């Protein structure tokens, strides 16, 4: 199955750049990095792929000379390179930090070569590189398929066209919501999506989730420095799916592990892109400042993996509003996952907003920066009168814009907080989460009190 992704457009822009640098594709294992490059390779006259998990291909980089490495690679792969464009792909580059350090010399000595590297757990490898080529490489961050990419995989062209209309039309709402529920159940791991499209059988994809989760466990244990660290990592990755919204490091997952041990393990999972530690902010306007002294919440790589760990797939088949599942955590996870997926130039870091005072506290699910405004985003099914935390934000902000993501249709309301502060509330269906930047631009630029 060929997957059309925003990353393809990025790759074509990279190829056409007059200031092209070697490109490193970053992302968790099995999100489609290798497949993406192999599909892109069809646009070149010649393609050389090296996988540094193989000893013979890793040993090429002992030559310490770019031209010698290239000639040895051509010989190893049985290629005679004549005229035309050449794409060199170095996969699993984290297996040899020295190869990452050599990327700068490919740009300086062989700018005619189009070079892409990819790897999972890259952040661990980067820690051991003394001469990392800062400023001499570009990055592409790859996530699991988002909802729009899932629709493309299904060849749901009418649904894709309906998504392009701002605002979305009422006639398209139920169809898009049904498709989004299907996506919410599966998640966006490419192998899972491919299997489901071929067989339409949820039971056939469960072993794939289990294999993926085991792969992540095995990978991370390679980086544990001792038995204690290995045991902590096993516990954390096993218990994290069942944790509540905001977490405490001390005693995580009903364990006796100390805060420092749990924190180190969670940060390792974050570096591996298996989970994100999403921290709160108390900011009401840009710039968003991260408050690491307050308790974070966990964001998983993929909703399908989380659903499988919690055995929620069949529950999702029966409900109309995802906010009724797992205390609203699945809908929150999904929306955040969509926002992470659309930012491919940097590693997007979501934030939620908190106000914690002696006698009261408030928490808004997400904040989204648009120009000089920080827009509060609540993810729930309740009526606007129940948006207590959102109202706390609105009453303190310097603008009247707020967003609620829910299972209902699109609308914009002029409403007031219980204290009488007027504001504008844009109600967005969950399935529009990938369109958040466009919708907030439409909202702010077209609406006034």
Features:
single chain; 449 residues; alpha/beta; Rossmann fold
Secondary-structure map with pairings?
Blueprint: H1 6-16, E1 23-26, H2 33-40, E2 46-51, H3 55-58, H4 66-76, E3 86-91, H5 97-101, H6 103-109, E4 114-119, H7 122-126, E5 138-141, H8 147-154, H9 157-164, H10 173-186, H11 190-199, H12 202-221, H13 227-239, H14 259-271, E6 275-278, E7 280-281, E8 297-300, H15 303-310, H16 313-318, H17 329-342, E9 352-356, E10 361-364, E11 366-370, E12 373-379, H18 388-396, E13 401-406, E14 411-416, E15 422-429, H19 436-446
Parallel strand pairs: 1-4, 1-5, 2-3, 3-4, 7-9, 12-13, 13-15
Antiparallel strand pairs: 6-8, 9-10, 11-12, 14-15
Helix pairs in contact: 8-9, 10-15, 11-12, 12-15, 13-14
Give a brief description.
This protein is of the alpha/beta class and 449 residues long.
